[in-house]
Design brief:
4-stranded antiparallel beta sheet; alpha+beta; globular; Endonuclease I-creI; 7 helices; 2 domains; single chain
Amino acid sequence: MPKTIAFNKNFFKKWSSEMAYVLGYFVADGCMIINPRGSHYISFTSTDSELLYKVRKLMSSKHKIGFRKSKNPNWKDRYNLQIGSKEIFQDLLNLNLTPNKSKTIKLPKVPKKYFKHFIRGYFDGDGCISFNKYRRTNRNGFSYGLYAIFTCGNHKFLKDILKLIKKYVKVNRGKIQTKSKNTGFELRFTDKDSVFKLYEFMYENVSDSQFLKRKYYIFQKVLTHWGA
């Protein structure tokens, strides 16, 4: 008989900041699996082990975090957290998630109170912040590019995200475009004011158990450069 591993089976039954954050991250980097024997699993995969240790702690889980060494030197090593539970699997179905969700994902009905936590979780999985320096076409000085980006294989999902960000964060801009090589879509915020507002919305008064430090520090570095 398989060994029972402790975790919070009720984690996705009731909204909280912790649940919303993990749900957002799961939407980005999680999957739902039914194996040939009919067993139900949820799985989180990341190149950042920090994220999986946070998820495991938030879910009161004792499951092992797996490690897979990349055979390609240009690719990062990957970590995996897998939890077997038909009950949690069903709770995620109730939240509008499905197996093989990459191109069919729908935005769960996230209460306004918890949207900041959900979008931060999604950003930690499928988002990035970057600051680039370009030489102007006339070669007289430089231009600077500031980007906060969310990616997804589903255009409508990003459209729904943008709608709520505009509603709750009051950003000025936001554009969805096709990624290079047609591998999905990107929701980009490229003006300073919108990026600053996103930062304040996602990170204000938030416990460090609910964000990826690497991306948070990049945000802070960019904001320091811009004099926020």
